[in-house]
Amino acid sequence: MIKGIKHIILDLGGVILNIDYKLTEQAFTALGIENFQQLYSQAQQTSLFDDFETGRIDGFAFIKAIQDLAGLPLNTEDIRNAWNAMLLDFPLRRLQILQQLQLHYDMVLLSNTNEIHEEAFNKILMQTGGIPNIGLFFDKVYLSHRIGMRKPDIEVYKRILDETGFKAEHTLFVDDSLQHVEGARKAGIQAIHLEKGMSMEKDIFKPQE
Fold first, then answer.
1. Where in the chain is the domain with CATH 3.40.50.1000?
2. What is the SS3 assignment for 122?
3. Fold of 21-84
4. Rounded to whole angstroms, what are the CA distances from 208 to 40, 100, 105, 128?
5. pLDDT of residue 209 exceeding 60
6. What is the model's pLDDT at position 208?
7. Of 49, 63, 117, 156, which shows the fewest CB atoms inside 10 Å?
8. Is the CB of residue 12 less than 8 Å from the CB of residue 134?
């Protein structure tokens, strides 16, 4: 790991929580929304998803918008399940690493997410290890729909530095999206891009030999 680090900021999906965007696309396609891939992708989002991720609309408005876009009689639960299909599991080794990192570093979580996913990933966490909230592993949690800001906007990184008092040069940010990593670097934060095939337990926070 990069030397001189005192503070760590971690992304959630793709870093701590395994995700697969394709599963949500497939689930919505199965419901009859055949152009879902055009509406949502990891790199570029329509205003609907951007508004949902920054809390400008709530879960009820999001579901209603999906129903309107689909033009189909989709029920709320089917939409929620399809939207959550991308959320997979929290590998136990990663949760153990978070506990170990807490002993040595200031820990912050920064995630572009939404209220439906927040409820779902905390439920997965509870089922995994009886842990009710991902925040138990961190000193501070910044979720985009709660703070009204999202990565890779440089202002979200500046806000974290300002509120925590972290020095950028002593801060490490880990994310699986290159644009988010580049945003952090613009704020002077040291950052690692967790590329496809890499994992935090295998490639970054591996045991000392």
1. 7-18+90-204
2. helix
3. DNA polymerase; domain 1 (1.10.150)
4. 40, 13, 16, 27
5. no
6. 61
7. 49
8. yes
